[in-house]
Amino acid sequence: MKRTYFPILFLSLSAHSVFVFAAEDAVPELETMIVTANRYESSERESGTSITVITADEIKKRQLLTVADIMRLVPGLDVINSGGMGRMTNVYTRGAGSGQTLVLIDQVEMNDPASPVGSFDFANLMVDNIERIEILRGGESALYGSEAIGGVINIVTKKGQGAPKFGLSAQGGSYDTFKVLGTASGELDDFNYSTTASTTETHGFSAADSLWGNPERDWYRNATFDGRAGYKPLDELDFGVNLRYNHGKNALDYMLGNNPVHPNAPVDALHYTGTTGELFTRGFTHFKLLDNLWEQTLGVGYSETNRDYSNWDPSLPYDLSGDYLGMKLKGDWQHIFHLHKDNTLMLGLENEEDWLENQSEGIGTKSFNTQGYYLSDKFTLFDRSFTTASVRYAENNISGSKVTWSLTEAVLIDETGSKLKGNIGTGFKVPTLYELYAPFFGNRDLKPETSLNWDVGFEQGFLNQTIQFGATFFSNQFNNLIQAAPPLWIAENINSATAKGVEAFFQVTPIEDLMLRGNYTYNNTLDEDTGEPLVNRPRNKGNFEANYRFLKDADVNFMVIAVGEKDGVLGTRVPAYAIANLAGSYQVNPYVKLFARIDNLFDKQFQEVYGYGTTRIAGFGGVTLTY
Fold first, then answer.
1. What pLDDT is recorded for position 310?
2. Cα gap 161→183, rounded to integer Å
3. What does pTM read for this prediction?
4. Which domains are present in the chain?
């Protein structure tokens, strides 16, 4: 058996880490508030679920451009990129498929209804205007419905605060890459706003690995706009609206070529391009009644993903052109009742319509409707035990009805700085419109995919929380998974799978300005029909990060990402790898900040997907002006 070594395993422990720096004078950090665990703001320390929070400050310290690059540092997540910036990028949560993780931006569902598996492609999602990212690992269909069978990635954008301010940032570097970003935010009486606009371009490297005989460089261009505004005329009443638009265009390579040396590997496609436009918007009103004992939020969200592929290369074996338009319109009405300081009851209802439009494959226009009704109760005992029970009834007009539930528990032992936690629940995912209606593939008789998930873990702090560590053991059972099999290759509920493992973490602040942290994930997946591990899910994964602040205005960040070997598509194998990144910044004065980073510091050759290229050593630098 081939043995894989990880240079950071002696540092690796992770499951439920909130990435925050220790406060000055080595006192405990202010309590972290989250919204994903309960669908309303609550204390992270009282949650029994496994959640990682990534803040805007951490994103700045790492100097990374895309949300996908940030996700690589999260325990339990596997990020798979097919050939560089702008190429298809999938995220797997604790072994669940890419279409089994729900992705939200300011409560707008981003999963693409026109995607074959209902996934969200992270390829075009930049870190612009993001305040924090909350990643919930483990099925939570009881609160969030379909697609949350594996977890929830909730992205919260920045809210305008304080006096109006403006910013301009520019950076450039390897692969002829450059980015320009403009920002404006602030408050004017009862009105707040926050906006960003950016353009990014790179000449890139070959999506099909250049070391396997593919010399063509595949370019990428991105334009992103994000805006958020709010109006609060009364303490008990506020309104809000948000809008985000991502547009990406890139050169693509043929995914399964005729490479004579590496079978089933991609090859250059000289005239194959893809264009994606993504629009997400939501308006809401939030108001309080009965002396703030009853809160209501009424919202309407809309998302649209338009993908177009163009190919006029006669050397390719078949035409790769295609058009896919996915749309989702969702209304939600949520009620929170503060029955007692130790008891909060929540109930809500949702109505969602999904559309798929496609002419290239002859699907036409198809749609379905899903209604959901959910109830959740959180109760506290002796300020030590925090229990949340949730249940949902969902009905899809094609796939029928489903009841899901979850139960979470957190126990705090303040005398020893300990936390015990656990979570159990069921999940479901309705078949996608593509799986139902695609010619020669779709099947109107498909049933929802289902899951049973549980995890149990602990967290421990010492020396006024300057040392923290913990571990979570998890188990996921997936049933009725949809797969096409010979001889007819029609989608059927024929597959079952399991994913079992452990996530562990540590965080140490030996001195005020130095923070060390790491995490490790062991994930043993099994396709119960074939007896093989699930594709693109490594059994071992670990990260290490060190951040040092010096001269009060300077910061340097060093990270190592290590991923074990894994099974690829069609019987291929993707070798293990470990890469290091380095980033730093210097605040020259209140208005000027310089920053730089080096990716793949030691110039390691590696692949995330069999046959697809990745960056070699690359350097970038820039400046931010703020007024």
1. 92
2. 13
3. 0.93
4. 9-626 (2.40.170.20)
